Automatic annotation (TrEMBL):
The keyword Transport does not apply. InterPro entries: P-loop_NTPase, Shikimate/glucono_kinase, Therm_gnt_kin. It is an enzyme of class 2 (transferase). This is Gluconokinase. The keyword Transferase applies. It catalyses: D-gluconate + ATP = 6-phospho-D-gluconate + ADP + H(+).
Length: 160
């Protein structure tokens, strides 16, 4: 099974993803590591990525997910997956589950202001919320809860 933990930057994808993977003894991957150096530099400079920037990134993620499914590996993937078209690219099978970490702009902005050593420029949060197409038929988790509670909720809803 592949669990994609999605949401805007600062929603807790990496933190929750790592905790969930550790609790399940699964592999963890961060979709940020699939970005090209050019994309990372754009984000560092506060330049929003467009669909042309994201297509090669999404293709790399799709290949990884296909391989994990073929290898029957259990993986938690932290990935923004902001648009429905991006999620369609990634949810290749019924064994791919989406978990949406939902929070308010104000809460996430506060989190980003406290973050250190991350390439994501806080100014991009507005563009991320503008690009976000909230998903239907996913596991929706309110991020105002503690990370431990969020992981417990995800495990309970998925049944693992």
């Amino acid at each position: 099974m592949i669990i994609i933990v999605m949401g805007v930057s600062g929603s807790g994808k990496t933190t929750i993803g790592k905790m969930l993977a550790e609790s399940l003894h699964w592999d963890f991957h961060d979709a940020d590591s699939f970005h090209s150096p050019d994309n990372i530099e754009k984000m560092r400079r506060g330049i929003p990525l467009d669909d042309n920037d994201r297509i090669p990134w999404l293709q790399s993620l799709q290949i990884a997910i296909t391989n994990w499914l073929q290898e029957k590996r259990n993986v938690v993937l932290a990935c923004s997956a902001l648009k429905a078209s991006y999620r369609q690219f990634l949810v290749l099978d019924s064994d791919v589950k989406l978990v949406y970490l939902q929070g308010t702009f104000e809460l996430i902005q506060t989190r980003l202001q406290k973050r250190e050593n991350h390439f994501m420029n806080i100014d991009l949060l507005t563009s991320q919320f503008a690009s976000l197409e909230e998903p239907d038929n996913v596991i929706l988790v309110d991020i105002s809860q503690s990370p431990q509670v969020i992981v417990e909720v995800i495990r309970k809803v998925i049944g693992i």
